[in-house]
Each structure stands twice: as structure tokens, then as C-alpha cells.
Write a structure and sequence with these properties.
CATH architecture: Roll
Radius of gyration: 15 Å
Number of helices: 2
CATH class: Alpha Beta
Largest sheet: 7 strands, antiparallel
Helix content: 10-25%
Shape: globular
Number of strands: 7
Low-confidence stretches: 1-5
CATH topology: Thiol Ester Dehydrase, Chain A
Structural class: alpha+beta
Distance between the termini: 22 Å
Strand order of the largest sheet: 1-2-3-5-6-7-4
Length: 160
């Protein structure tokens, strides 16, 4: 992959995100990329709607987005960043390995728009460490660090 301009507003829409991430409904949790600086950081959004399938059970009378799904959306944002930061991204598969220092500060409810600010802390050939925060209306709702393994697609042996 040839490197694009390193610091650029990338308005990547959902169609292009689907060409980057393997996730699909109901687990594709990133709606748009607003900014991406290869090898460094990304800003994405998730529009939380009343019709999200998880609200049927979490909780019907007091709908709150599950914190683990907020972290998953953060990890997916990091995945988009990593895939834009490695050569030959189609040759790699990123898999969540570890979540650390997760802090859940405020609930996310229907109608909220979450902005994910994610930075690469460290990147090696076989793993990457990212740090992110989820923000709604200027307030941090979740913070976490995530470590992901990078597996060469040939190593997957049909496990995708």
C-alpha cells in the first residue's frame, strides 16, 4: 500500500469502512472517520440510535449502551487506524488481545453521538497498543487501553 498524506482529514463513510473492517451489522460500531493521521491517531463517530439491537435487553426501561460495546467501537476505530498504518493491510487480521485501564464514567443513551479519539501508543510487527477515549457532548464517557495481535492472514487457517 502506498502511504497517503500523513496528516489529513479522511472523511471515510460507512461503505469504505466496510472495505476496511470485517465486522458487519450488528457489530460494526463505527459510522464514520472524521480524521486519521497514519501511524498516530484517528477520530471516529458512532451515532447511537433508539433502534440499536442491544437496547432490547440493556435495559428495556432505562436504555444504556453496554460499556463493552463502547470499548469494541474504540477497538474498531483503532483497527481502522492500524490498517491505514501498515503496509499491505489486506494481508493482516487484527484480533483483540487485552483491555486495560478501562474506566466507565457516564452512561451512553439513545440519541448520543460518541466521538472516539484513539492514539497508537506502540506498534510492532505482531501487535499494537492503542489508547482511547469515548466522548459525548464534550464529556469523557469511557477511557481504555487496548492491545491487539496482528496475525498474517495465512496464519488464520480458515479461522476468519
Amino acid at each position: 500500500m502506498t502511504k497517503k498524506q500523513n496528516n489529513k482529514n479522511h472523511f471515510i463513510n460507512i461503505s469504505k469502512i466496510q472495505n476496511i473492517l470485517p465486522h458487519r451489522y450488528p457489530f460494526l460500531l463505527v459510522d464514520r472517520v472524521l480524521r486519521l493521521e497514519e501511524g498516530k491517531s484517528i477520530l471516529t463517530i458512532k451515532n447511537v440510535t433508539y433502534n440499536e439491537p442491544f437496547f432490547n435487553g440493556h435495559f428495556p426501561e432505562n436504555k444504556i449502551m453496554p460499556g463493552v460495546l463502547i470499548i469494541e467501537a474504540m477497538a474498531q476505530s483503532g483497527g481502522i487506524l492500524v490498517y491505514h498504518s501498515v503496509p499491505d493491510p489486506k494481508d493482516w487480521f487484527m484480533m483483540l488481545s487485552k483491555i486495560t485501564n478501562a474506566k466507565f464514567r457516564k452512561p451512553v443513551i439513545p440519541g448520543d453521538q460518541i466521538r472516539f479519539y484513539v492514539d497508537i501508543v506502540r506498534m510492532r510487527k505482531r501487535f499494537c497498543e492503542i489508547k482511547g477515549k469515548a466522548v459525548v457532548d464534550g464529556d469523557i464517557v469511557v477511557e481504555s487501553e487496548v492491545i491487539a495481535s496482528l496475525l498474517h492472514r495465512e496464519e488464520m487457517n480458515g479461522r476468519e
